[in-house]
UniProtKB/TrEMBL annotation:
Domain of life where this protein originates: Bacteria
Gene Ontology biological process: bacterial-type flagellum-dependent swarming motility; chemotaxis
Lineage: Bacteria, Pseudomonadati, Spirochaetota, Spirochaetia, Spirochaetales
Localization per Swiss-Prot or TrEMBL: Cell membrane
Protein name: Chemotaxis protein PomA
Domain MotA/TolQ/ExbB proton channel, first and last residues per copy: 101-220
Source organism per UniProt: Treponema primitia (strain ATCC BAA-887 / DSM 12427 / ZAS-2)
Keyword list, A-Z: Cell membrane, Flagellar rotation, Membrane, Transmembrane, Transmembrane helix, Transport
Membrane-crossing residue ranges in chain numbering: 7-30, 36-67, 145-169, 181-204
Topology in the lipid bilayer: Multi-pass membrane protein
Family from the record: Belongs to the MotA family.
GO cellular component: plasma membrane
Amino acid sequence: MDISTLIGVAGCFAMVGLGVISGGTSLGTFVDIPSVLIVVLGSYFGLFTFSSIPDAVGIFTTIGLTFRASNYNEKSLIQQLMAMSEKARREGLLALEEMLDDIESDFIKKGLRLVVDGTDAEIVRTLMETEMGQMQERHVSKIQVVNMWGTLAPGLGMLGTVIGLIGMLKNLEDKSALGPNMAVALITTLYGSMVANLLMIPWAGKLKISDAKESKVMEMAIEGVLSIQAGDNPRILGMKLLSYLTPVERKAMEAEILKD
């Protein structure tokens, strides 16, 4: 589980709650079912207009990904590709076939299968980059839906404010209706801001970062597969892949990976 997402969400709501309580107001004052209906559910159903039904329904699965810890294990990837490079140089590319079943990544396995089958390097690159591009398009599509919820929520909040004010102005004689209508008017704006700024925008940002990390690992895999096909020295292959990492990550792995 990605603890940082949990800390972020819990921390935001905790600070807002503490701010409310320390101001002498009860949290119950900010619970309003009509406002939830207008802002939370109203903006959610707006997603069905923006996207397809599977994407709108699947947004909760997408959001769930922000709570899942992803470990792309670049170090293991580099070491595995270096080992294959060494075997290919010593025994030939066909010798890699017996190692394919041990590879967990279907993406790398497909690339190496093409190499073992003697496919031209440019075709291997094109096929692998196309698969990576398709993955990125799927990610962008899902991230846009999350972003759209964050965009719609404040708008529905303003709509709820207008609805509340109209209800209040139409019932000025009824003193008992002033409070509930005013509550809807103001709390909807609060809910819209909270849905957008405490949830959807941070979640969309985290999904973008995850997409960038996964794309980088796939780029490393493409470079590694093509380097094996080209017959590069394992050390050269390792140096190529390490160049994708940040200086801090590179320094942490370099000594161990290139020790020989």
